[in-house]
Amino acid sequence: MEGPAAAAAAVSTLSALAVFVSTVDRGAVRSAHGYRVAGKGGGCGWERWVEREFAFTPTSAREVPLPNDAQRLLPADWRGRPVYREGQIVGPWRCILAFDFVAAVAPPPVPPPLLCSFRNPRLMCVPSLYNDLTKVFQFQKLEEKVPELVQCDSDEKMTTSDAKDRVSVKQEAGSDTDEHPQFGEDLLASAEKQRRAHREYIASITLNDISQYFHLPIREASRSLKIGLSILKKKCREYGIPRWPHRKLKSLDALINDLEFVIDEETERDGVKQEDHGENEKENQDAIKALAKRKRMLETEKATIQQKPTLDLMDETKQFRQYVFKRKFRAKTLVCG
């Protein structure tokens, strides 16, 4: 492992996150991310803010470049430390989620529907936003409290009384009734109409069809394929997939995002310090090249696992991931302290 490169890839810790929706452009989402970055020796030396924009469609989502002429959440001439609040208006943007560890701004107990992974699977398509949201909300724990209403792996239909009971449980788990007043009724109607998928359709599902959803949790993949969870697991066993590869791909995405973040920072620092520290220019460039090489290796490994989901992560990747976890834990401990 490259010592300087590996150390540089593990210094950022999320300290603030604000998500805004556009009041004029349906489907446009803007976010501001604050990161505490540890300096040499593990001390938290400085803070980094990043602004991103996303375009959500009914079927997908993607990160888009920030328009040059658009009003920014983080203006170029801003000073101090920005603090956002839920409901805040910044130009055409309205804040729907605010979290700030430093300013003691706590997030809501339940994320808005747009930012729920199990209610909006499109989030998986934008890991730069999704990964930070998972640090603020424990989606997996929240999902365990919300029972599945529209999937039925048995041959019998869900009865109306069972559906009503489950809808009441889901509402207790924190569904946003203000934004979706008919959400419970819609789920109840779907539960009453849902039947087992046709055997012909199940038999027609190929490995290529399944592989398109490896980036999603297995529950979300079964919803997208419109089959039950147990049926999807059975199809995976038929194709020799003993374990759903979402966690491996998610882990690789997180490492790639961290490396991209550090490469950008090291490139900016190298440009600033070239005049004052010309003797260190070659060392900085070597570190950037090492980071870029590591990033290419991870991207290649991710593409390979998508094609062959039975493969495990390489030992070198596991060691690098463990090193990153330790560095982040130490940095987080210093922030909390």
UniProtKB/TrEMBL annotation:
Keyword Signal: yes
Entry's Gene Ontology molecular function annotations: DNA binding; DNA-binding transcription factor activity
Pfam families: RWP-RK
InterPro entries hit by this protein: RKD-like, RWP-RK_dom
Keywords per UniProt: Coiled coil, DNA-binding, Nucleus, Signal, Transcription, Transcription regulation
Region annotation (Disordered) ranges: 154-182
Leader sequence segment: 1-23
UniProt key word DNA-binding: yes
Residues covered by the RWP-RK domain: 187-273
Top-rank lineage group of the source organism: Eukaryota
Ranges annotated as biased composition (Basic and acidic residues): 154-169
Function (record text): Putative transcription factor.
Protein's name according to its UniProt entry: RWP-RK domain-containing protein
Lineage: Eukaryota, Viridiplantae, Streptophyta, Embryophyta, Tracheophyta
Gene: LOC123427496
